[in-house]
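Form 7-S
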Amino acid sequence: MKKRSINKRRAGNVPVRGEGASLRCKKGGRIITCFLSACYTGYLPFMPGTFGSAFASVLVFLFPVFFRSLPAVIVLIVLLTAAAVAAFDLAGLRGTDPGWVVVDEVIGSFVAVAGHRLSLFTVIGGFILFRIFDILKPFPVKHAERLPGGYGVVADDIVAGIYASIFLFAGEYTLG
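Output:
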């Protein structure tokens, strides 16, 4: 049996043969890649996580009906998390977090604004606070990354989103 050669990685975060979900998962590979890369925002050549979080903020503005009710947001986050973990396993990523995978940032951004009154302040504030906590990774965000498989990839962003949400609630309370 002939071994398949693995092409060298192209510039940027674009997966090539043998490295990404679109080529590892035979059934639904493009759909999984679209999902994991948040409609391909993860393929932007710089700051893919920030663009993934910005994509989530745009979704909050475009579909506010999903974010007005805390129970609806919780269900959405749970479903997205389960789908993301399953997609990681289907794609063969098994706990690695390549730069082009930004669905975890989308989930964390949703957590940051969950339960808040939707306004320009909360969406932008949630975006900025989430990115700060996602980048700095204070305790226990960094420890959540150590969970096995896709759980760790998604868990650190959920914890960063919780931190952002707490600070956002404090800001809303302080500013009235």
